[in-house]
Design a protein that fits this description.
Oligomer: single chain
Strand order of the largest sheet: 14-13-12-11-7-10-9-8-15
CATH class of the largest domain: Alpha Beta
Structural class: alpha/beta
Largest sheet: 9 strands, mixed
Distance between the termini: 34 Å
Shape: globular
Number of domains: 2
CATH superfamily of the largest domain: Dihydrodipicolinate Reductase, domain 2
Helix content: 25-40%
Length: 334
């Protein structure tokens, strides 16, 4: 069977991971890249044997045989670009954060529905093999009832010269960037989020956006999840997900994943950690298989919308230092 042909909008750092993923994929080809920095698009196109364009409209007009596009630009451009392709009935896989406002998220989802084409948000940890295995272990009931859930993305990164720290472009700081991953992970394991509390823990880089944030989320199932997000502290934590149940504990790590039951002193290792390229390959291949009717999307449009709703509530909490409810009525209405 011939491979599906993808276009990629944006040739920044995350595009490099997509390029590697396409090189390893057996069902997808990266045939075109667009970026306002044409030299960057050309460099990436040379690696992937694709064609380079200076903007997404030129790519759309020249590449008549595209099966889908991936949007990997800063999030302030996602809505405009996504709707442009969806209105032309080209399926869209859009990087997280999906967009800056709930209104924009609804606009993208409506454009996909009106056009009758596939749309998904790309959040890499749903495609991490260890995360998927951990979800199965939790769902099996072997850990008992989940009592607490912890997630941490803690690394020291100089963000002073990156678009992520420009609020008009990014929509926020570490809470918007890594917090979107956290929200999706929590919802994947525990279901819908009822309310959130976010606390600014200060910073050292003099950024105009949040740099260190603690977030707590209460789920509809009665579980409290705690999230540690920072660009300013390298905590070198071995695990980025920890789940504590009535019968045992589970950790998903960067290099190893394991669980232990209270009835057994030994840990059971079930994974070798996070593989970035494999997770990116999982994103494009799940999207491709869904286009072919062979799978369902790992992240459905309501999940994408919920991520924006929760982060919006978290920023309200950050400003007011109060718990904020998450109203997911808009999710079920989609």
């Amino acid at each position: 069977m011939s491979k599906l042909k993808f276009g990629l909008i944006g040739a920044g750092g995350i595009a490099q991971a997509y390029s590697q993923a396409f090189n390893e994929s057996e069902c997808c080809d990266l045939v075109a890249i667009a970026d306002v920095r044409l030299d960057s698009a050309k460099a990436l196109a040379e690696i992937s044997s694709g064609r380079a364009y200076a903007d997404y409209k030129a790519l759309a007009e020249s590449e008549s045989g595209l099966d889908a596009v991936i949007i990997a630009t800063p999030p302030n451009l996602h809505t405009e670009i996504a709707c442009y392709f969806l209105e032309r009935k080209i399926p869209v896989l859009c990087e997280k954060p999906l967009c800056l406002t709930v209104a924009d998220a609804l606009k993208i989802i409506k454009a996909a529905e009106d056009a009758g084409v596939l749309f998904a948000m790309a959040s890499k940890f749903r495609y991490c093999e260890d995360v998927v295995r951990a979800k199965s272990i939790v769902a099996s009931g072997v850990l008992g009832d989940v009592l607490q859930f912890e997630n941490a993305f803690t690394a020291k990164v100089d963000m002073s010269k990156r678009w992520n720290s420009v609020e008009e472009v990014s929509g926020g700081g570490v809470l918007m960037d890594n917090g979107t991953h956290s929200v999706d992970i929590i919802r994947y394991f525990l279901g819908g989020i009822e309310s959130v509390l976010a606390v600014d823990a200060g910073g050292t880089q003099s950024l105009a956006v949040d740099e260190n944030v603690k977030m707590f989320a209460k789920t509809h199932n009665g579980v409290t999840a705690s999230v540690d997000l920072t660009w300013g502290i390298n905590k070198e934590l071995p695990h980025f997900i920890s789940i504590y149940g009535t019968n045992g504990t589970l950790h998903v790590g960067w290099r190893e994943s394991k669980y232990k039951l209270h009835s057994n002193p030994d840990w059971t290792v079930f994974g070798s950690g996070y593989d970035k390229v494999a997770s990116f390959r999982g994103k494009i291949e799940n999207f491709s298989q869904t286009l072919g009717g062979k799978e369902e999307l790992f992240i459905q449009p309501p999940d994408a919308l919920a991520s924006v709703l929760v982060i919006e509530a978290a920023y309200k909490s950050l400003k007011q230092n109060l718990w904020q409810p998450v109203v997911e009525k808009a999710v079920t209405a989609v």
